[in-house]
Structure formats: structure tokens, C-alpha cells
Amino acid sequence: MALGCYDWSFAQGLLKAAAECVVENAPVLFVAYDLPIPGPIGKVRITHNTFGCAFVLVPQARQGAVCTLDITHAPGAVAQDTTLLPQLAELARSNPAAGGLALLQQIASGQEGIVHMTCQPGTILAEVTPC
Hints:
The protein is built from 4 helices and 5 strands. The protein is an alpha+beta fold. The N and C termini lie far apart (29 Å). The model has no long low-confidence stretch (mean pLDDT 89).
């Protein structure tokens, strides 16, 4: 399934993938990518860089897992994370799929934390717990 949600595509896609994983009680591959958009639409949503990432979501933690994610939707707006490394912040602003960089950075840190991702409407909260 493909999902396009403008600047909120990563957060909305992650929520959809997590919901499917839990409801179907089966692994889900979530792939997010964007590249510079050609033609007239590329003049409206300018995407300067190519970015892609993927997550294998499973309903229960398994041996060898990197972390667990507890993903929830908050109906109100919560400030997006601003803790992104400066080198990554511009990429995150210039590519909707790169909205996943804050989550990837949190996972790579090996520390517990909550990542806030804006979506329409509301906010997606991803609580990361290393395994």
C-alpha cells in the first residue's frame, strides 16, 4: 500500500504500519522514501534531497530486536522534536520521508526516549525502549 500525506507522510505511515502490525498480529515492513518531485507538483512541494528508510515492525519483541516502539496518536499539536543533529535537520525539513530522522536518531542513541512527530491532525508519539 502506498500512502501520501504531504509533510506528514512519515508519521502517518508509521502509525498505519504499527496499527496493521498489531491488528493483523503479523510483521509489517514500513518503507518511507521521497525523492525530488518532477513537474508542476514539484514546484509546490519542493524536495531537494533523496531520502529513504525502512523498519520491520513485529507485534511482540523478539530476540535480536534493536528496540521496542510504543506508538500512540495525540489529538492535539505537540511541538516537533528539535533535538535533531544540525546536519540532519535541514534534510528533515527538505524531505517528508526524512521526518523519520528523529526516530532513527533516538533508536541509534541506544537510550530511552519519546519522539514527537507532527501529523494531520495531531501528533504521533513514538516511545523508544532499547532491547
